[in-house]
């Protein structure tokens, strides 16, 4: 499948294997392919079941830990058929493993020897694991306040952990300022993360068809955009007869998508960053997320701390332990149902993105709320 890296802003194109983490004009790059082929590999249950649909550098061999192929749990909620996609069952405990696998596969094929990433935790842990599997040196910059379990993962996988005072934005500045000869393998900027997350849509389509709606948390936007792209391609190339409405979820502590979508600030901002996985201050693909929401006929739900806590409790009573970011989908689905944006009898796909085992201390504090 011939593919290039293309800038949607200025139109520049680069080879797929070019070591460019963004366009020369400063915009994030996208993968552009001449065709799309949905040809699942029979008998393989992993993201690489859809290898024919993934953009790969010439002669690249998958760096895989068995990511993808996650189970789906169907529950009845408020008259809706809700399908929780258990992405926290990926090898390092989050959906980020899909993007890490594809990105590191292509970086290894491009002979990258060292990479740098900044992350609030899950992406750093994931990229550390896949870098180790690929034999690539890795440095991860995290806020000092990141969950202990995620920072421990990073160190155990063999990466050099750099804890940064000052929050998520400062971690990014430090990472870029101390690159040296390493490649900046940011999950926020990598065009391979949305491409890998499209396999979530492919898996769901094979097992359940096309949902009426998708409800997913948005931090960098890689998950949301990937699921959107997956269902869009299946429809445009004639594999499915419909597409879902895409509903983004953000927390009241970082509702930056609200202003981008509605052109006005969110009024009830909360000071406490409850859902750290979506505390991304300046996601480079924000405009792409806005476009995908509008194009799909979806929307945005901003949830507060109380809703997130109730989401955690609701899922826990069903035997599902997730981190606070994942729990945001539950109050979001409730709000959408109450406002009539999803109707009784409709199907809703809701990815649960990260394991609660990584954030037990934070969850314990929240349950006291």
Can you give a write-up of this model?
The protein has 369 residues and is of the alpha/beta class. Among the domains are: 1-35; 72-93 and 191-366, Rossmann fold. Helix content is 35%, strand content 18%. The chain has twelve helices and 13 strands. The protein has helices spanning 96-109, 122-134, 148-156, 168-177, 192-208, 222-236, 256-262, 286-296, 305-316, 324-327, 329-338, 360-366; strands at 3-6, 13-15, 30-33, 72-77, 80-86, 114-118, 137-143, 160-164, 183-184, 213-217, 245-251, 299-303, 347-352. A six-stranded mixed beta sheet has the order 4-5-13-10-11-12, with helices on both faces. Strands 8-7-6-9 form a four-stranded parallel beta sheet, with helices on both faces. The model has no long low-confidence stretch (mean pLDDT 95).
Task: Summarize the helices and strands and which ones pair or pack.
Blueprint: E1 3-6, E2 13-15, E3 30-33, E4 72-77, E5 80-86, H1 96-109, E6 114-118, H2 122-134, E7 137-143, H3 148-156, E8 160-164, H4 168-177, E9 183-184, H5 192-208, E10 213-217, H6 222-236, E11 245-251, H7 256-262, H8 286-296, E12 299-303, H9 305-316, H10 324-327, H11 329-338, E13 347-352, H12 360-366
Helix pairs in contact: 1-2, 1-5, 2-3, 5-6, 9-11
Rg, nearest Å: 19 Å
Q: Reading side by side through the largest sheet, how are the strands ordered?
A: 4-5-13-10-11-12
The end-to-end span amounts to 51 Å
What is the residue-mean pLDDT, rounded to a whole number? 95
CATH topology of the domain at 72-93 and 191-366: Rossmann fold
Report the major sheet. 6 strands, mixed
Question: Unreliable runs, pLDDT <50, ≥5 residues?
Answer: none
Pattern of helices and strands: EEEEEHEHEHEHEHEHEHHEHHHEH
Counted by DSSP, the helix tally is 12
Determine the structural class based on helices, strands and strand pairing: alpha/beta
* Helix coverage percent: 25-40%
By DSSP, the count of extended strands is: 13
Output the CATH class name of the domain at 72-93 and 191-366: Alpha Beta
